[in-house]
Amino acid sequence: MPHLMLEHSGNIRESVDEAGLFRELHAALSEVGGFRVQDFKSRVVRLNAYIGDGTYEQAFVNLDIRTFAGKSADAKSRISQEALRVLGRHFRRTMTETSCDISVQITELNRESYSRTRSEDLASQAPVLPLVLQESTTP
């Protein structure tokens, strides 16, 4: 945790360096949000079927940051603003050459309904049990 889910319209001008973008997002959000870099799960989806402002010319970039509930409103604002800053740099050409919106949202997940297993759990033949997470002291 957290999960970064980046979606963008197919008409952006940049050739996205996905690995570089996520490396920068991971580092920046780790610093402002107290996340561990190794805990990020990130992916990008290019959407070729989209419509914005009623036209196909409108470009967009949206980042959904999914993390456990419990961060303060101030902490969530800092995380969102830092992500927006990084995205603005990576999509500057699209922002200057087209009509484009970049947005960031934080979706809070409930710890009680989040489950996962790891490869090492399966390799050791351990039974797959819900992961018990400790409360974070990060704001």
UniProtKB/TrEMBL annotation:
GO MF, one annotated term: 5-carboxymethyl-2-hydroxymuconate delta-isomerase activity
Q: Which InterPro entries match?
A: 5-COMe_2-OHmuconate_Isoase, Tautomerase/MIF_sf
Which region is the signal sequence?
none
Superkingdom classification of source: Bacteria
Coiled coil segments of this chain: none
One Pfam family hit? CHMI
Kindly give the Gene3D superfamilies that the UniProt entry links to this protein.
Answer: Macrophage Migration Inhibitory Factor
Give the protein name, as stated in the record.
5-carboxymethyl-2-hydroxymuconate Delta-isomerase
> What organism is listed for this UniProt entry?
Streptomyces klenkii
